[in-house]
Amino acid sequence: MQLVRTDIAGFVGMAERGPLPEDFDPATFDASQVALRISNWKQFLTQFGGFREYGYLAYAVRAFFENGGKDCYVVRAAVTRSSDPLQNSAKASFTLPAGAPVAIGTVNQVAGPFQCALTLLGAASVAVGDLLLLAGGGVTQLIHVAGVIAAGQVLLADALKPQIGAGATVQRFPASCKICAASRGNWGNDLRIEITPLDGATFALRATVDLGPTALPAEEEFYRALTLTDSASYNYAPAVLAQQSNLIRMEFLGNPSIRVDATGNLFYLQGGRDGLSAIGLHDFSGGDDLNGMRGLRLLEEIRDVGIVAIPDAVFETPPALTVQAVPADPCVGGSPPAPDAVANDPTAVAKPLSPQDGVQLQSMMIEHCERLRYRVALIDPPDDKKINEVQTWALDNGLVSTPGSRFAALYYPWMMAPDTLGVEGPLRPIPSSGYIAGAYAQTDLTYGVQRPPANVELQFVVDVKQAITDLQQQGLNLNNVNAIRALPGRGIRVWGARSLAPAGDDEWRFIHVRRLMSAIEETAERSSRWAVFQSNNAALRNSLRHSLSVMLDGIWTKGGLNGTKPTDAFYVKCDATNNPQSAIDQGQLICEIGVAVAAPMEFLVFEIRQDASGAQILEN
After folding, report:
1. Per-residue pLDDT tens digits for 473-509
2. How far are the Cα atoms of 6, 371, 444, 452, 549 from residue 448, in angstroms, in the given order?
3. What's the pTM value of the predicted model, to 2 decimals?
4. Taking phi first (over 0 means left), then psi (-120 to 50 degrees means alpha), and beta for anything else, what does residue 55 get?
5. Are 381 and 398 in contact (CB under 8 A)?
6. Which one of 19, 56, 182, 357 has the fewest beta carbons within 10 angstroms of its own beta carbon?
7. Other beta carbons less than 10 A from residue 117's beta carbon
8. CA-closest candidate to residue 523, choices 386, 617, 408
């Protein structure tokens, strides 16, 4: 019997790309479709993109891997259910035409850069995904319908050119197929698609993430010969892209012919939106209602997670970015310029959570870990807290007011991480939770969860945001705040291992005690499931007692339990004295375990009761 893994982290935060719950059929939805298991930094880049000006998630995951983490689960947070369609995240797309455009009406009124009202001819109508050709003021513009607000009132996938106003003519192309980004976000607006007809039935396709004329293509995919004529063919485009592409998907709309001369064979996808400007607490936390399967709620479905971190709970808006002008029409000769993501996405700039919502989210993290028992929460204080303020911040905000606080730990200060984006210069302040999750994982994998995750040198960090003296650390220790210190000649190290357990809860003062007990309890629960439908007799109880004793002996041998001999370090009681006939008649198997964890110097006792309905753990 071996201890379960305790090193696997779960992150929730804002990302450049990645799956969201609304991208899947609710009838067959599974948490693993959105909470993706990531095993290295390159895999994160492929699934969720790179560093963002708005959000700390990518920095935290990079810090996790740089500091010894091996596996984590990542959940993207974004707005998907706002009543205002402009606030929701959306996939960038482009509908390929099958023939010449047909006049359907004129522009009646422009309600904003992304909205207008149309006067439609006769029985003409517009629908989501329609490719329109607008002409007015001496210019033309290809643009998609991203949403229909009311009859004739449309939400556009791109910003209208200033010259397009009332009276502009509107034509619609018949549709062949629609290419869309693999996931929502304005990253898809940088996807450049090149279609090259090969014969009457096949075409080549190249998809490139184009970051502008001064940057090399970030990602590129090329497909030599695709078709839309035979859905059973090995090169049927929608099936090939669904199976092989990390960038795009294709939906066949009924006409297998593609008329590239109508739009040019080189174009960018349109209408991708990040859905961050109205992001709120629910988008991070999720809930129990039908629409609640998102954020932290999704991590409940992932049994392997042992560490939870949400660095964006304390996200602060970086200096404002310079917004470029809307790019020129892709239909006007030559290769069109790469669009500016922020200029074409009104939801690109994230709104930080209010301090109250940030604390509430962290309270939910602690409650989440207490309820699920086998994981701990890493809490980040706001960046603006000074040493004397952070000492009582958690207490003042109710984060240490319940026994659940023993399932959480607080670290101070923030880290100064190297930043290729240059958001605030060559270094950017980053919450420490991703670093600490990596330090936990490194300690667990190298020595075992019984070892305090302290005195670990951190990587992917240049300096700490706030230097801490020995005297200042005394005050932090008294308030259960773990210091991270830059020590001359020794690097930047984690210099504490305390939990947020409230005063009087001394047995759980150290976070590794909580984590070790959780690991023992979970291992005992999982490893005793086989006994549920066995006869509760002496042979069964002896077998279970032996297997649990072997596991605990291994922890004692590694120094995780006190005592000069095993009987001083632990005991396992599973016999007739705690399995009376009344319990046997109820189908219960009761096992009491006591361990003397190395830190608190006394026995911590828990009881596990297994029956057909599952396991019940009772801590004493």
Report:
1. 999 999 999 999 999 999 999 999 999 999 888 889 9
2. 9, 24, 4, 9, 18
3. 0.91
4. left
5. no
6. 357
7. 16
8. 617
